[in-house]
Write a structure and sequence with these properties.
Blueprint lengths: L1 E7 L5 H6 L3 E19 L2 E10 L4 E9 L4 E9 L4 H10 L6 E12 L2 E8 L3 E9 L4 H13 L13 H13 L2
Antiparallel strand pairs: 1-5, 1-8, 2-3, 2-6, 3-4, 4-5, 6-7, 7-8
Amino acid sequence: MELEIKLKLKRDITENIKNIGFKYIKETHQIDTYYIVNEYYQSKQTYLRIREDLINKTYSFDLHQIHSDIATKEYEIQMNKNNINTAKNIIEILGFNEKCKIDKERKIYKKEDIIIVIDKVKELGDFIEIEIQSEPSKENEEKLFNIMNQLNLTKDDIISGIGYPDLFLQQKSKQENS
């Protein structure tokens, strides 16, 4: 299970992240192709995607189910580049069409069991994710909100209940209707 707080970033906080003890781990450039966006399966909000990391040359097939505003159960299978087209064909044969692509550059920082991710998402802007791989508990939630407070981020900037594909599709819909 992954517990995560996602917030819209209004300023560069890289120095703040380092000042509270987080260490830079790596950078990625991910292209996420979504086939299921915010649909319900087994009464859970679900996302299905194929992820390509262009820098680290890694690939995965992922299903995420939302359990609460901050808890997500993630199922991820690592693939190699040769399997991507086969996976896409299988998904399309099952009747799922591509909903959207999310193109993001990501910087990852870590301190103990907490990871901070800074995302620059093409067409959407900058975001921060504060996450921990753990079961939901009051203690773990407090850890995440404590980091948020240390970085002087406010609850007003939290993106709750939706992900980047939702934001992208909402923005696209607004553009089409204007």
